[in-house]
Design goal:
12 helices, seven-stranded mixed beta sheet, two-stranded antiparallel ribbon, alpha+beta
Length: 354
């Protein structure tokens, strides 16, 4: 059985300067041995903790993925990447074995011919209308989101899942923020207004303050199960659109990327927590194969991210693909991109539909 939250302290925590706000230092040897992440016979947990001991972590911004025990292989801190050899980093960052890449390499189809044609015809029509050939100030982020991702996703009959847009609070993120015990290493940085809510009462009634419920992060789009899994509708996919294609700003792009990565972690943990509350155990092998996907659209590019958990308490996010959205250029394989995303989403949902 694998615990979902851990508060045990070990000798690493004697260095308050280097262990504050990092749950990685709270993981016990027994927990690591139950779900190890080995790189060339060396322990990934110890290698990362060594990096953290050697630097002043107070200089790490609160919203950096490593604060939440997430290894961002596409944009890693230099001090983490330098700990590993080139060959080791290739193993850590490789996306050849992720479900999305495996599906793209295969010849099998998940969409029907009509669904694949509908996606191609959608972008063909946009190219014909030349809406994105020249700068257009009237096209905002919402319009770009509809044309670039929302309509293509709706091009297939979503009878099994629900596409939510525009921004709606993530239930996984909300539950994590309101949880008494959070597995978030940056929880202290996300405290919100907890002023008591005044309750209507009669003149002589005693005033009983209540904590204000915290609202989860709001992705630009989200896909969740229509059917209830373990009495809950679970989220499996999120996306962020960082402004219209001509108004890309590096600050917003970076902020949205970090927001997306954190939401992917919330979704992963929410699925694990929901499974555990139902069956009181976790099948480690099942969760080794669990991957949560998200996309970020910046400019005319769409980046696809895969989030998983290769070891106990240690997460990884990889950029597994980057495509040019074909509103100005022709792409005969664009339907395969959306097919791969939906295939992996449905595979994850079916794995946890027992």
């Amino acid at each position: 059985m694998v615990a979902l939250a851990h508060n045990n302290q070990n000798s690493d925590c004697t260095n308050a300067k280097n262990s504050d706000n990092f749950n990685l230092f709270d993981i016990t040897d027994d927990e690591i041995s139950s779900y190890p992440w080995k790189i060339n016979n060396s322990d990934m947990h110890e290698r990362v903790k060594k990096c953290l001991r050697d630097i002043d972590i107070t200089n790490i911004n609160y919203d950096e993925p490593i604060r939440s025990s997430i290894i961002d292989t596409d944009n890693p801190p230099t001090w983490i990447k330098n700990e590993f050899s080139d060959d080791e980093w290739k193993v850590i960052s490789s996306n050849d074995n992720c479900h999305y890449k495996k599906f793209i390499r295969r010849s099998e189809r998940f969409f029907s011919n009509s669904e694949g044609s509908a996606i191609k015809n959608h972008f063909k029509w946009i190219r014909k209308m030349k809406d994105y050939k020249y700068y257009n100030n009237e096209i905002n982020e919402g319009t770009w989101q509809i044309d670039a991702i929302s309509i293509p996703l709706k091009a297939r009959s979503l009878t099994d899942v629900l596409l939510l847009m525009p921004e709606k609070s993530s239930k996984a993120s909300s539950e994590r923020k309101n949880s008494v015990i959070s597995n978030s290493s940056s929880e202290n940085f996300y405290k919100e207004n907890e002023k008591p809510i005044k309750k209507k009462r009669k003149r002589n009634d005693e005033f009983i303050p209540r904590k204000r419920k915290k609202i989860g992060r709001k992705p630009d789009l989200m896909i969740m199960s229509k059917t209830r899994l373990f009495q809950k509708k679970l989220e499996f996919f999120v996306g962020e659109v960082s402004n219209s294609p001509w108004k890309e700003k590096s600050d917003k792009t970076n902020k949205d990327r970090k927001k997306l990565i954190r939401m992917l972690k919330d979704i992963y943990d929410h699925i694990a927590k929901t499974f555990f509350s139902k069956y009181l155990y976790l099948n480690i092998n099942s969760f080794k194969n669990l991957e949560i996907y998200g996309i970020q659209i910046t400019g005319f590019k769409m980046k696809i991210f895969c989030f998983d958990k290769p070891g106990f308490g240690l997460y990884r996010v990889r950029k597994v693909d980057e495509i040019t959205i074909p509103v100005n250029i022709k792409d005969d394989f664009i339907d395969r991109t959306f097919e791969g995303l939906m295939y992996n989403k449905m595979s994850s949902q079916q794995d946890f539909s027992i």
